[in-house]
Each structure stands twice: as C-alpha cells, then as structure tokens.
Amino acid sequence: MKQDAVEAGADPVDARLGSRLAELRAERGWSLGELAERSGVSRSTLSRAERAEISPTASLLNRLCGVYGRTMSQLLSEVEAEPALLVRAAEQPVWEDRASGFVRRSVSPPHTGLRGELVEGRLAVGADIAYDRPPVPGLEQHIWVLEGALEVTAEDTGHRLDAGDCLRLRVWGPTRFRCAGAKPVRYVLAVVLP
C-alpha cells in the first residue's frame, strides 16, 4: 500500500487499488505511455489513479480491467482489506481427511496480498498421502517436523525427517507424505508462491 497516499488522506481502498494498478502495469513492464495507448486513458489520469490522488470511476476501472484481462470483481477482490496481523487459534480453519488420517490446520491462511502461508499437518500412524502435482508448479515448501517422523518423497527422492528436521524444496511434480514412525507425526508446512 502506498503509505504517502494514506498519510495524505486518500481513501484506504483507493490507495490499495492504486497500488494494485501500479503493480499490474509493472508486472507487464509497461510505461504509463504504453498503458495509455492500450487503454485509451490519459497518462495523467492513470498516474493520478495509481497514486490514489483520484478515486477511479467504474468506466476507468472497466477499461483497465479489459487491458489486464480481469473482471472488475477479480480486481476488487485483489484489493480487499489488509490481512489481519493476528490469526487467533480459534479462527484457524481445520480440515480433516478421516480416510487418510490427515488433519490440516491453516495457521496463517492464504490472502491475496500475501505470497506465503503456514500450515500445521498431523498424520496418524500409517497415514500415507500422495499428491499427483502441486497446485502451482514451482511451489516453494519448507517442511519442519515438530513431533514424530515423516517421510516425504518428491521427484522420486525420499527424505526421512525426524523431530527438528526441515526439508526445503520447490515442488514440480508428484509428492508423497507418510507417517514414518510408531507415533503420529506433527509438522509445519510453510508454503510460498513462486
């Protein structure tokens, strides 16, 4: 978020929207002039919108959404309020796969403004979970075992992790998580989008 826009009294949503519009342009490597040509909106209007000096109209946002290949709903969802700094244990979503003996707690849930998340995984004795591919190719994972033993197979290479061990990798293909001991395993999975 552009702090100077917020300090100058800009609406917080306009400030986040302006910041996101600037990010979208930068991701494509376009100058303000190039975006003006593509959108039919003047450079000065684009610059003022990115700096949150003006509140963009629906018409302006519609033009920019067309250039960026997004619906207005998608764009606006990308500028939701900043994620909560504190996620209380009671607010952390828990999902259980009873068939496999896997419990997943989303300690730091994903948010459009953040690239990483933290997950606590628990596998019962004998639990074995296989994933045919990552949700995003090249996904970065850090797996830190807190209790028990875990076997992780990635790219046909097996890794045994005991309490305190950490495996760091980028996931491109199938992976497998297996409780490798006589006791349940509890681990932290840090996930970072590429």
What does this structure look like?
By secondary structure, the chain is an alpha+beta fold. It has helices at residues 3-7, 12-28, 32-39, 43-50, 58-68, 72-77, and strands spanning 94-97, 102-108, 116-123, 128-131, 139-147, 149-154, 157-162, 166-171, 175-179, 185-192. The strands form 2 sheets. The protein has a 6-stranded antiparallel β-sheet with strand order 1-2-3-10-5-8, with no helix packed on it. The protein has a 4-stranded antiparallel β-sheet with strand order 4-9-6-7, with no helix packed on it. It is elongated.
Comma- or semicolon-separated keywords:
single chain, 194 residues, alpha+beta, 6-stranded antiparallel beta sheet, 4-stranded antiparallel beta sheet, 6 helices
Give me a quick take on this structure.
With 194 residues, the chain is α+β, with helices and mostly antiparallel strands.
